[in-house]
């Protein structure tokens, strides 16, 4: 989608090459490991689409990193207002026809008063083109509908989030109008069942997607994807030592290769493939919150807000 916006890096830096804040990223640490809230009977579950997180088959691209045209249609971009035009500074994820899930620090550390987020772009694939197309195996051109810039009605920050503290780093964007789902615009699934909320990450890799800086430091015009290693919380705390403290409300991944999450990834999804209503679907378990300034800085994982522990808050703050 051709645009006059500027894509910038959402990067909040502190010492030791980590974007985030050097103080604790969590609140009071519980003495026992708490389980995610049970939302199986929540009244607002009906607001989440059942046809979510579909895995696209027969994708055109065979590249392990390149995202195909219809592969992750829930990716979104928040546009901050500047005098010379809007700038994409953070990502987000479509979770319903009215809501985008993202992180709170995109609206505090990036000065929401001076540079408010007034719209969200959805259904985007290639930032350098007006009409996004790919050629299939039969050499036939397949094109997507134009991306949409949707006005923002309201931004909802978690009430316990504090600027500069990365605990409870989660936010919802309520769109001013409903969006119609297409092949290039759909919602991801959330961990609302016991099976998905208790997913065992041990020894597994997770998938992260984003419009972000490439390894060479240039803006990618199309989204990228990476399969990265899940890092146990105790191991993650050892790696970060006293710099930050990771609570049960967060999760860590990456840091073993020079390809993982970097500045500019804030608000994007960490997802896994899991069973939803008897089908394999993409389920979002993390929202990129903080991590290395350098993409995939060896030995230093990125930290994600753990979605399953906030499902009650997410549903409580949704409305038709």
Automatic annotation (TrEMBL):
<dbReference type="InterPro" id="IPR001314">
    <property type="entry name" value="Peptidase_S1A"/>
</dbReference>
<dbReference type="GO" id="GO:0006508">
    <property type="term" value="P:proteolysis"/>
</dbReference>
<keyword id="KW-0732">Signal</keyword>
<dbReference type="InterPro" id="IPR009003">
    <property type="entry name" value="Peptidase_S1_PA"/>
</dbReference>
<dbReference type="Pfam" id="PF00089">
    <property type="entry name" value="Trypsin"/>
</dbReference>
<protein>
    <recommendedName>
        <fullName>Peptidase S1 domain-containing protein</fullName>
    </recommendedName>
</protein>
<dbReference type="InterPro" id="IPR001254">
    <property type="entry name" value="Trypsin_dom"/>
</dbReference>
<dbReference type="InterPro" id="IPR051487">
    <property type="entry name" value="Ser/Thr_Proteases_Immune/Dev"/>
</dbReference>
<comment type="similarity">
    <text>Belongs to the peptidase S1 family. CLIP subfamily.</text>
</comment>
<feature type="signal peptide">
    <location>
        <begin position="1"/>
        <end position="20"/>
    </location>
</feature>
<dbReference type="GO" id="GO:0004252">
    <property type="term" value="F:serine-type endopeptidase activity"/>
</dbReference>
<dbReference type="InterPro" id="IPR043504">
    <property type="entry name" value="Peptidase_S1_PA_chymotrypsin"/>
</dbReference>
<keyword id="KW-0325">Glycoprotein</keyword>
<keyword id="KW-1015">Disulfide bond</keyword>
<feature type="domain" description="Peptidase S1">
    <location>
        <begin position="59"/>
        <end position="319"/>
    </location>
</feature>
